[in-house]
Give the backbone structure.
Amino acid sequence: MSQEPQDSFPYGVALEVGTDGIRATAAGAGSAQPSPGVGARGGEAPPPGAAAPAGSETPSSPTVWGMAASFAGAMAKFAASGFRTVDAETHQVRVERCAQCEHRRESRCTLCGCFIDKKAWLPLEDCPLGRWLV
């Protein structure tokens, strides 16, 4: 009986984010190859075992599962707060502080994986670098 490498996952999983929420679907149960899809930072996921280009990833880049867990926690806190949001001025200040950050890629943060404009509305969330606090 052959043994799978420690760093492989036996099922391909695809996450779909839409206006109605997030869906995770398993593809090819028992398949040793992950299903093609989008990597944690956008774009096509690299093939298994492929080295990332030098300087393309930071050690703290979140995984898809890490982002899903963070999102679930943020939504739980948001619900517990009574679905409160910050005022428009606070939101604007938060977004402006992220505007020139080296970890911003389009509308997302590569450190936490969030959509900056959306996270900035949540009163109990903060920047992973401390540029805006709770």
User: Anything to note?
Assistant: Residues 60-134 form one domain. The chain is about 25% helix and 15% strand.
